[in-house]
Amino acid sequence: MNLLVVVNGVSDYSAWRQIFDEDAAEHAKFSSSMIAGPVDNGQVAIVGYDVDMGAMGAFMGTPEFADRTSAIQGEVTIYELSEIAPPA
What we know:
36% of the residues lie in helices and 27% in strands. The chain is α+β, with helices and mostly antiparallel strands. Strands 2-3-1-4 form a 4-stranded antiparallel sheet, covered by helices on one side. It starts with a strand and ends in a 7-residue tail after the last strand.
C-alpha cells in the first residue's frame, strides 16, 4: 500500500527530521521507500511506498516512539494513495 502521511504540529522541522532519519532502518522494515519534507504551517508530508500498515502501526504505537516525538509533533493523518510508483 502506498501512503501519504501528514504530520501536523511539527514545532521544529530540524529536530523532527533528525528523528525521521535516525529511524531509517526501522522504516525499511515496513516500507520499500519513504520520502519526507516540510509542507507549510508546521506540517510535514511523508510519502511511503509498499507500506505494511500493521508493522508501521506497531512501530509508531510504541511508547518509545511517542516519547521521542510527542514534544515536536502533533496529530498524524494517513491517506491511501493508488496508482503511484516509487521513485527510480
